[in-house]
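Figure-free illustration: sequence to structure, shown twice.
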Amino acid sequence: MFFLGCFATATAAAAAAEVAAPVPGYVLDNTEVREIHAASLKRDYQLYVALPDSYRASERRYPVVFVVDAGYAFPVARGIASRLHRHAGMEEAIVVGLSYAKGDEGVYSRRRDYTPSVPRNGGYRSDMPGRPAAFGEADAYGRFIATEVFPHVAAHYRADMRRKIFVGHSYGSLLGLQVLLTRPNTFEHYILGSPSLWFDRGVMFDREKAYAAAHGDMPASVFFGIGSRETLAPGKQRSRAEEDADMVADLRDFHGALAAHRYRGLATTLKVFADEDHASVFPLVLTHGLRAYLKQK
């Protein structure tokens, strides 16, 4: 009985140890995480970096894809970029994901960092207790990317900083438009999916008009994509409010305004993806947007 008791105790201890042992997480191949302090914003972020398959064995420089909303979008962008190279002959690229601010909830961080203004209609609640809702820092965040993220990437990787691609979706596309309408040559190519052009009563339409009044050129290429289901529900009257927005019509109007102003150096494409909605369309926008810029063998 003594030996049976010892055996039972040992078995139970082993089972408990097995249960308590941490299960390792899945790690994406050829990826790195770098900490970066945004001195201008007084916040800390992370950069998620995916290197091409050939990076370690080559000496060449690669175009760089910068993607916001990195928690979701980085692994998607990494996978699509890799697959386009392996199976469709597209050139390889470094993918850099820009995280939300450390210590912030995702909604709080993206509302603050990606939106171009403080909404005049108000009505937003903060998702972080004890902190007021924050908006309107897209211009400052765009400067952080250009003046702090770019030098960091250039110093640590063989990046071709003459071929930089911005990728954003929804609020992330508002950030891209803010950069495009203030310092368009920050990136050579913009991939903008389902931009929230209803935000702040259509403030980006006003900013495009202001840009056109002061500039005749816009040196960049832009791929716009959106799902065909991102339209106004039947029976509703269209307005520039989130609940009554027709995002497809808004994007067609914005794209038309860019075309009407005939900016020198600007090349744009707009594609509406059939049977896709706001939640499902991003991988298609990214795939077609990369094809529109990266070279094919």
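We now fold a second protein in the same way, so the two outputs can be compared directly.
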Amino acid sequence: MEMNQTQRLPVPRDIAWAALNDPELLRQCIPGCESIEPDGENAWQLAMTAAVGPVKARFKGRMALQDIQAPESYTIAFDGQGGAAGFGKGVARVSLAPDGDATLLTYAVQAQVGGKIAQIGSRLVDAAARKMADTFFARFTEVVTGGADDADNAGQQEQQEQQQEGKQKRSWTAWISKP
């Protein structure tokens, strides 16, 4: 899977850089993120819940920053295991460029998925990845511009929507374990 996009952040580059390197802020903004714990220099262990089509799983993984050129760019190497749901791994190149009083953030992701997630099909995987990225940037923008309460409300709203979805749809686990 490949995904490339540019986002305009309404804050100066130094503020955007600091926010992108703040684990607690990232935990608030990453959809389904439960925890981000330090794991060495410029590396973190993550736990998160993600849904791709009918497959919903808890993933544990690691992310590490490489090729750091503060405050311009870095590369994020990541990998995660979701048990029977499968795995994901890849790299994301992130760069920040000043744009007046704002910042242009450009990223290019190359990732691989395997297991049940890969069986779902690339269209659903790509759509889920884009939705996660859009949700992240909406929350991130709210937090860095001072609307952290709105970001928390967005996270609570997402949880409520997922709970409603869970009541309306049968999960992949229930489907495959049915005799």
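Summary for the second example: The first strand starts at residue 2 and ends at 9.
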